C-alpha cells in the first residue's frame, strides 16, 4: 500500500534544508528529528510504503530511499519568492502562502491509496482537501497537536467529505469536541515511540549534579532560545550546580553558540549539534535528569515523549500539549514563557536521586508502536473500503 504524506512546510527548503537535511538524508532514514521517518519505519512492517510529497524551490525530482521516497515538485514563481520572506514562515500570512504553494501538488496523488496531510492550521489542508475530494481520493487530515482554537478553525471547514478522515494524534477531549455535526469520522492515533527509549530507564543512577538537556531545532523565535539563555543565567545566579547539553541543529545554531560565549556560559553549556543515530542519542539523553523545553510554538515534540520514555523529568513552557495531553503524565512541570525564574525554581525543586519511572510507564501505555500500527491499519481499512 502506498501512502503519500504532505508535510506542513511551504517548501522542503523552508524546513528541512534549514536543518541541513537533504532529500537523500530523509529518504535513507539518516535524519530522525521528525515524526515522518518514524511513521515510515514502523509502517513498512505491515506493507505500507511512505512517499513524502512536498513543494521545492529547486527542480522537480523523485528520490527513492531505503526508508521512504520523496516527490519534490517545483513551486510556482510566487511561492518561491515567498520562501525568501521570513514573515511568511510563521503567523497569519503563512496560511495564504501555504494555500498557494499547495496547488502544484494536485496532479501527484493519483497513484496513492491514501493521502495524509499534516497541518498546523495552515492553508495547505483546506486547499488539498478540496482537490482530493473532487478526485474522489481518500485523504487524512492529521493534526499533530497545537491550540484548540486553531484546530477548530482548521477542522470545521473541511468536515464535509465522506472520503475524509481527520486524525488527532495528541490532544483529546478539547479537540474531539470539534466533530459536532461532522460527516467525516475523527480518529485518534498516538504517534509511536521506539522501544529503545524505554530501555534507558534501567540504566539510571542517582545524580549529584543537575544534568539538563535541551533538544530540538535551534530556531531563535519559535524555540525560545532567548528564554533558554535567561534560564541558564538564572540558574547560575542562584548557585544551582548544573550541566546543560544542547542537542540539535538549525538556522540559529551559530548565533546561540556565540551568545553562550559572550555571556560566559562555556563552562556549563555543551553543544552537540545534530545527533541522528539512536545508538548514540538514547544513552546521551538518558544520562540526564531533566529535559528543558522552551518553545513558544509547538505541536507535540517527539523529543518530549522520548525523554519521558527514558525516565527524564520534563520542565516545559505552558503550551496546549503540556496543559492538555501531558496533564496526566507524572514528572512534567510547566512554566510561563515569560518567567525564567519559575523555570529555574522548578528545575531546582526536582529530586535528582530518582528518575521518572511513572512517566516512562505512562508513555509505554500511550505511545506503543503496536497500538500505532493497529490504529493506522484500521484507518486504512476505513479509507479504502
Fold blueprint:
Layout: E1 2-6, H1 12-15, H2 23-28, H3 35-43, E2 49-56, E3 61-64, E4 69-74, H4 77-82, H5 93-101, E5 114-119, H6 123-134, E6 139-143, H7 148-155, E7 164-168, H8 173-176, E8 186-188, H9 196-199, E9 210-215, H10 225-237, E10 242-247, H11 253-262, E11 269-273, H12 278-286, E12 290-293, H13 302-309, E13 313-317, H14 320-323, E14 332-335, H15 340-349, H16 357-366, H17 369-384
Helix pairs in contact: 5-6, 10-15
Give a structural overview:
- It is a single chain.
- The chain contains 17 helices and 14 strands.
- The chain has 385 residues and is α/β, with parallel strands linked by helices.
- The protein has 2 domains: 2-192 and 368-384, Rossmann fold (3-Layer(aba) Sandwich); 196-366, Glycogen Phosphorylase B (Rossmann fold, 3-Layer(aba) Sandwich), CATH 3.40.50.
- The strands form 2 sheets. The chain has an 8-stranded mixed beta sheet with strand order 3-4-2-1-5-6-7-8, with helices on both faces.
- Helix 5 (93-101) runs parallel beside helix 6 (123-134) and helix 10 (225-237) packs across helix 15 (340-349).
- The longest helix is centred in the C-terminal third of the chain and has 16 residues, at 369-384.
- The protein is globular and about 60 Å long.
Query: If helices are DSSP runs of H or I spanning 4 or more residues, what is the number of helices?
Result: 17
Write the CATH fold name of the largest domain.
Answer: Rossmann fold
Low-pLDDT segments:
none
> How many distinct folded domains?
2
CATH architecture label of the largest domain: 3-Layer(aba) Sandwich
Sheet having the most strands: 8 strands, mixed
Overall pLDDT score: 83
Give the CATH level 1 class of the largest domain: Alpha Beta
The shape, in one word, is globular
Task: State the CATH superfamily name of the largest domain.
Answer: Glycogen Phosphorylase B
Please state the structural category: alpha/beta
Range of strand content: 15-25%
Please bin the fraction of helical residues. Answer: 25-40%
Strand order of the largest sheet: 3-4-2-1-5-6-7-8
Q: In angstroms, what is the radius of gyration?
A: 21 Å
> What is the straight-line distance between the termini?
13 Å
Q: What is the number of strand segments?
A: 14
